[in-house]
TrEMBL record, chains A, B:
SUPFAM superfamilies: lambda repressor-like DNA-binding domains, Periplasmic binding protein-like I. This is LacI family transcriptional regulator, kdg operon repressor. Keywords: DNA-binding, Transcription, Transcription regulation. It comes from the Bacteria. Residues 18-69 form the HTH cro/C1-type domain. It comes from Evansella caseinilytica.
Length: 352, 352
DNA sequence: GTGAAAGCGCTAACAA
DNA sequence: TTGTTAGCGCTTTCAC
């Protein structure tokens, strides 16, 4: 009687989709579940040719798809990593993500992409969610605010890697750009072209990247004894960019050169420049962090400090997977510093 | 003896990370697993205040994180959907993805993003992988090639939704742009400005979107009895864009206006234009599909056909979640057609 | 109000 | 060479 009811249930395809299970395959092939499992995991050592074929046929006939949830539960690994970007709107983030995806895909890992929108709260949510989903590791472009959480992960030995931004006192693998040097280089380049009143604009400096760029800028300015005015440094939020720039240009000695902190600020600046007829580079020379596709298409083409985003992402994925699989060599230092590439174009005017 | 060994194992934190399980919480709180489970699922009806607090304390003390894999296995749902984009490099894809992410996030769903790179093979791999991961549904920007697979999913009643591209004879929810109309509109706009030799460039037309745009273009050209030359239509692969454009411009009667099929081709065209000093709009007027951030910053600003990508993505997520939760109303048609927004800027010259 | 027990679909000893 | 069995961590019915 019970068997009969069971049969009936099996027939009626509850909810329209009845998932085929390993048990079904085993029955159809006339073998046991574990044999099917062996087959799926390619442990063919002792498996008879006939068995193999029966199983293969059964799988195809039933259109069986393994349930990786169950497998992951058992094996305690998901072959999945998470990546949390601080702000997906930065082109840099997209490129990093893509590099990581590519690398993981070629190593049979999957990637769950999350966007923290620069909100520490959201970052925390995503870290928790990824852990709940049992991902094998996390790549983080940290907001830098969830120190306690980072520390907890570090302590637990959870595979974690920071990219783009370092976090003081958290001792995990970190991949960054030498932002300070890059900013200094830009200032020196301006200086070499005869500029003295050099300004910098970026978004608020609460993350290490921006802070370092600002530091590099300031250091270089000091080094060359250029005019250091508070008015030459803007860290206004994105939506106040226009106002900030106009204010700068209205100074009695407005800057002749401007270092732009990232691609999002750049867009705002270019909008402003157009709207108010500020002439580039005659009136204002420009160098910007982040290479965007239109840097070379803009009129004039923009000199940029390009980050090797793809390479950085790839390295990140590589290191994280090594860490997950406990294959870290001694040569794998804790921290990798990439160098920016300076792409000289016509947005800087020669003054001397 | 056995108990002793078990204890020892529990102490030694195998591999550095020992996950805290519900059992641990239950023990510490002096209740049973099922009570903890009730607590976590907020089934408080009959739960004593004291019990609640003991459990809460135990959870915090142990830093317990539920394992959603186990839960999903049991509940047969993962609260996760997958999205497979045909080509992540299109700005349009990024925007759609973001919209879907936003909507899902606010509905406690998670999203796994995959990039098929325009390769049907990869698309198939990802569909299989997502199903293996037991995602509750899939949003697909289909390559259009895996017909058999699409049909299988349709037959199984698997929650599936197409966006951007329709697939003939596959009867699932579909969200598209009215590409034909948009292309016709562009041609008519050119015509209204006095252009007669109107060309179009896009990447190869094996997907419905591009095909429709081309059809719209051709129809409008025919309608207004404009010169129809094969040479005015290029569907060269991306890497041959430069060559194709130059060839067009070298015709004895080169086009005076060009409709560009998508943002990736646009970039190539603008590079070529710069390299070979083709004057926009004097020598060649331009309208392009896809609004990019630099369209209005380019010199001259580019007239674009903007897709309401965010709205489309949001609608997609909305429909798919409805479908998953079996809440489709009668008003939810199978197919949603969005209208493009025509953004008039200076890249079209008036000839009359 | 709470707990015992069965089971989700799979893997991995170990037995046969 | 293949099958038996005991779980992975959680949910859920039903008994207490």
């Amino acid at each position: 009687m019970i068997a009969l009811i069971y049969l009936v249930c099996k027939q009626q395809e509850v909810g329209g989709i009845r998932k085929v299970t390993m048990q079904d395959v085993a029955e159809k092939a006339g073998v046991s579940k574990s044999t099917v499992s062996q087959y799926l995991n390619e442990r063919f050592e002792y498996m008879g040719q006939a068995t193999k074929e029966k199983i293969k046929a059964a799988i195809e006939e039933l259109g069986y798809q393994p349930n990786v949830l169950a497998r992951s539960l058992k094996q305690k690994k998901t072959l999945t990593i998470g990546i949390i970007v601080a702000n997906i709107l930065h082109h840099f983030s997209t490129q990093i993500t893509r590099a990581i995806e590519d690398y993981c895909h070629s190593h049979q890992y999957h990637v769950i992409i999350c966007n923290a929108d620069d909100q520490p709260e959201k970052e925390k949510q995503y870290i928790d969610m990824l852990r709940a989903k049992q991902v094998d590791g996390i790549i983080l472009l940290p907001t830098g605010k969830n120190i306690a959480l980072y520390r907890e992960l570090e302590k637990q030995g959870y595979p974690l890697l920071f990219i783009d931004r370092a976090v003081e006192e958290i001792n995990v693998h970190t991949i960054v750009l030498n932002n300070r040097d890059a900013a200094m280089h830009a200032v020196e380049y301006f200086y070499g072209k005869g500029h003295e009143r050099i300004a910098m604009m970026t978004t608020p400096v609460h993350v290490s990247v921006r802070a370092e760029r600002v530091r590099g800028y300031q250091e270089a300015v000091r080094l060359h004894q250029l005019p250091q005015m508070n008015e030459y440094l803007s860290t206004a939020p994105l939506e106040n960019t226009e106002q900030a720039l106009l204010q700068m240009m209205a100074l009695s000695h407005p800057p002749t050169a401007l270092l732009v902190g990232n691609d999002l600020v750049l867009i705002e600046i270019l909008k402003t420049v157009r709207k108010h007829d500020i002439r580039i580079p005659d009136q204002l020379s420009l160098i910007t962090f982040d290479e965007t596709q239109f840097a070379e298409l803009y009129d004039p083409p923009l000199t940029t400090i390009a980050q090797p985003a793809y390479a950085m992402g790839k390295k990140a994925a590589e290191l994280l997977l090594k860490q997950i699989n406990q294959q870290l060599d001694d040569e794998d230092q804790r921290s990798f510093v990439f160098q920016a590439e300076f792409l000289e174009r016509e947005s800087v005017k020669k003054l001397i």
